[in-house]
Every structure is written in C-alpha cells, then in structure tokens.
Amino acid sequence: MFTNVSTLRRMSINSRPNFYDVLISGGGMIGSSMALALGKSPLFTDRKIALVEAGPKKVRKNDSEQYSNRVSAINPSSKRLFHELGVWKRFRRYQTVKDMRVWGSYTADTINYAQGSDSDDDIAYIIENDEIVDAVMEELNGCSNVDVFYKSNLNKVDMGPKSVNVQINSEQSCECKLLIGADGANSQVRKIMDTNYLSYGYDQTAIVATLNIMEKQNNTAWQRFLPTGPIALLPLNSTTCSLVWSTSHDEAKVLLSLTPHGFVDAINNAFNSKPVEDGTVTFLKNLLPSFSSHPKFLNECPQVIREIESSRAAFPLGFGHATNYVKPNVALIGDSAHRVHPLAGQGVNLGFRDVENLTKSLSQGLQSGRELSEYAILKQYEQLSQRANLPIMIAIDLIYRVYTSNIGLVRALGSLGIHLTETVAPIKMTMRQVASS
Known about the structure:
Its cofactor is FAD. The protein is α+β, with helices and mostly antiparallel strands. Helices cover 35% and strands 27% of the residues. The protein has helices spanning 7-13, 29-39, 76-84, 129-140, 188-193, 249-257, 260-272, 279-287, 347-367, 375-403, 408-423, 425-436; strands at residues 19-25, 49-52, 71-74, 95-97, 99-103, 110-112, 124-128, 146-149, 154-159, 164-168, 172-181, 197-213, 220-226, 229-237, 240-248, 305-308, 313-322, 326-327, 330-332, 338-339. Strands 5, 6, 12, 13, 14, 15, 16, 17 and 20 form a nine-stranded mixed β-sheet that branches. Strands 1, 2, 8, 9, 10, 11, 18 and 19 form an eight-stranded mixed β-sheet that branches. Strands 3-7-4 form a three-stranded antiparallel β-sheet. Strand 5 and strand 6 form a beta hairpin.
C-alpha cells in the first residue's frame, strides 16, 4: 500500500507512530512535485511527509510507446523548478516550442511570437502529463523521509486546533501538522476547509487527441480563435502533434461522432479556412493608423493533419477560484485552489508556482524557528500565490469571453488585439514574457 521505511528511521525522525509533519492529498503532477520539493529540502530532512494517491503505482512506459493525449505546456519558470528538483534530466521525451502563431476567424492578422524577438529563449516545452508524474515519482524514490500511499483516499478528516487527524481508506489513521490539498478541481480537502469557491462552467467541451502530421520541422505551437472557441496544435515530435479543441457542447458531440477521416478533415478546415467577413471588424480596423510599415500576417499554413494516432477524449471546461488557499493547518495548491481555461496553457504552471511559493513560505518559517503550520506562514503563501495567479486568471477569462462573443464590436476588439500585439513591439514583448514566466 505504501513505500516501507524502517522503524529505526521513523523513530529517529519522530517518536509518535503514524504521525506526519505534512500530508499531501493527491499524487498528480502538482501533489507529487510538492512532496518532492519538501522531501529534498534540507530543512525537511528530519520531517515526515506522506503523499496519498488514489491511483495505483504505475510502471513507467517505454519511450517508444504511443503518446498520451493529455499533455502540458511547461513554461521556462516551471522548467527551472524541475531542474532544481533533479527531475528535468529524467524526462525521456518532450518537445521544445520556439514559436507560437495565434490568429482569429475574422482577419488574417497573426501573432508570430518568435519573429522580431531578439531573444532565442524557448517559449514552452510540451510534455505528457504521465511523463511528468513518472519522472517526479522516480526522483521521489530517493527521498527516505517521504511515504507514498497508493490506491488510497482520505476517508475521514478531523480538523483540530493544532493538527489534523485523517483516516486513509478504512485501515490507517494518521495525524499531521499540515494537510495540503492537491486533489484537483473537485477537491475533497477544499470542501473540508469550507472556504468560498467561485466557479462556473464555460459551456464548452475540450476535445483532445494525438495526431500524425506531414513530417516537417515541428517546434511551433498553433492556435486559432474560432467563433465557438480556440483550437490548438502542440508539437510532440517531427511527425506528431497534440490537439486541444475547445468548442460548444453541441459541436463537440458532432466532432466526437465523426469518423476518423471526417474528424481530420474538420481539423484541417478549422485551421485553414479563410477569414469570415465581418463589417464591424473591417470598419474598426480601417480606423487605426498603421503601427508598422511591415505588418506580419500568416504566410504559411499549420501542419496538415494526416490521421488520428490515439482515441479522442473530451472533458468540460470551467473557471474556479477559492477565496482562501489556506486555513489553520491546511493549504490548497494547483487545481484544488484554482481552475482556468486551457487556451493559454497556464493552468499547470500556476500549480507549479504554488509549489514554489508554499515551499518558500514553509522554509522561511522553519528558518525563523516558527511552527510548520503556523497560520501566519500559510497566509504568506496565500498572498504570494494569489498575487501571482489572479491577474493571469482574469486575463485568460477575459480573452475567452472576447473571442467567443456574439457581439460584433467585441469581436472587432479581439481582432484588433491580435493586430496590435503583432505590430506594436512593446505589447508583443510583454505578451511573450508573460507566456514564458
């Protein structure tokens, strides 16, 4: 059920049986990274940490196996975290994104993030979610102060004034100073906290799939804002891309019912169809002065899709944000605390930033001789993460609403946003920095 450690080692760290300084619920990308960050911290060498994961222990797949259709766009900031944790060297396959092309449905204006930039820095790295978890768990095996409970859930949680009592399945009772919820958008820990949670659906479904393309240099991410939602291609290797197509529930049902050949035709048409004529967009654009003597437009089509490599999958999209990330003896990280639309690829990166911020706050508290779960320390983490997360979450929500609006003027403003981002260098530079930070 869990990684065994010697009784001697347990007693040397803490004399109380079944006691953990930190217990983390959820062993996905964020929860496992949180366990590793604490497990490798010199300040936690003599602390006991538990990671509770509902799924079984996985056998890492061979790197020649088919790609998974669930991937993440890891930004340079998250890459630095993986380097610090010793994980980056364990990734067997990932694809570097050097450029990003973004355009809409009503004009040919295109944002080309690489063009005109003096920086040769990478924009992102496309990595399968399973690859991230496998690499983190592999590195976690070297942390003797971390116990991992597989096939396990929190059955009962009692919040005390100075600690938390939890029951794992129906067999194991534990006490911990700090309970960390990394158990996803439907977080049980968040519900136990009884904090206000702002959430709403986007009336959209995301369809994901792995696609084979005509072989070519493949280090560009493509995204087009369609009237029903954005469609994106993320590079995996020279012949493979990952699709994320966000659209209305009704259109999603139609797309999922198509034959593989019909689905491929729909994707190619979505990317390569001509701009839709819109009088409001044209009128407003003509009022603008030219900000560049050489406006840049889409001068090549994205990859031509040949076939579907993996089965299609779909999931509903929504927004969510907890008013409080912390309460006495408990903290939320990742999707447990916040949920965003995938159009900007920032959701998982916000979670990794939570890992950094919580690790930093807990470490500073221990260095100053304070209790691990002291509320003031947890509030410091909350302030750091909310200050970083909220502006990005609001911006993503606004972008979604602008580009899916039925109001002509709003659509026009969205098209102008693309035009201005490409032609006004400071705006484009700022957008690239935000995407990479």
